[in-house]
Design a protein that fits this description.
208 residues; hydrolase; Glucosamine6P_isomerase; single chain; 6 helices; alpha/beta; Rossmann fold; 3-stranded antiparallel beta sheet; globular; Glc/Gal-6P_isomerase; 7-stranded mixed beta sheet; 17% strand; EC 3.5.99.6
Length: 208
């Protein structure tokens, strides 16, 4: 593990973008694990800007996102599929058929979790997994007590997590109670993990 403590959030974001870009240059058909949330917005903005200014192509890249809310269709404005389409996929030259998120509206979420885990394995695993850190230390929707061996599965969202995410939903919308998330074991199977955390303390970005 390598920990980098950087002076500003912007500097940390730039370093994360440079590491993602280097992965894509070294392996144009890289399999990237992606994350959502407010921490990732400036990362994707900078990644898009780099791409448009001669940076690496996404043409042959495959992506798998960490999670998706159970019950939300991909077209729902608060789904993570909509988030990714808006902030990254719709702004670069990626093939949408190579972008993967769990289907939140799957008839059987448990089967969907198994299918998603198998799809990651069929692609040869993740070359680089991008991670953020929730308010209570959760990664994906894995709460701090999650097993280190856990695989993609259904997780019940804690009240704290639901409250933190409520700002993204209208007052008349029901905040999802469940999510499909990669497990900790699934995440740790990635060949490299890259975690970005910025907040009240000095920003820290830590690749493994």
């Amino acid at each position: 593990m390598k920990v980098l403590i950087l002076e500003t959030a912007d500097t940390a974001q730039e370093r994360v973008v440079s590491l993602i870009a280097q992965t894509m240059r070294d392996k144009p058909n890289a399999v990237l694990g992606l994350a959502t949330g407010g921490t990732m917005l400036p990362v994707y903005e900078k990644l898009v800007a780099l791409h448009k200014n001669g940076g690496p192509s996404f043409r042959d890249v495959t992506t798998f996102n960490l999670d998706e809310y159970v019950g939300l269709a991909p077209e729902h404005p608060q789904s993570y599929r909509s988030y990714m389409n808006d902030v990254l996929f719709g702004k670069v030259d990626i093939n949408l058929q190579r972008t993967h998120l769990p289907r939140g509206d799957a008839r059987n979420p448990e089967d969907e979790a198994l299918r998603y885990e198998a799809a990651i394995a069929q692609c040869g695993g993740l070359d680089l997994q991008l991670l953020g850190l929730g308010h209570n230390g959760h990664i994906g929707f894995n709460e701090p007590t999650s097993s280190l061996k856990s695989r993609t599965r259904i997780k019940t969202l804690t009240r704290e997590t639901r409250d933190a995410n409520s700002r993204y939903f209208r007052a008349d919308e029901t905040i999802p109670t469940f999510a499909i998330t990669m497990g900790v074991g699934t995440i740790l199977d990635a060949r490299h993990c890259l975690l970005l955390a910025t907040g009240a303390q000095r920003p820290m970005q830590s690749p493994r």
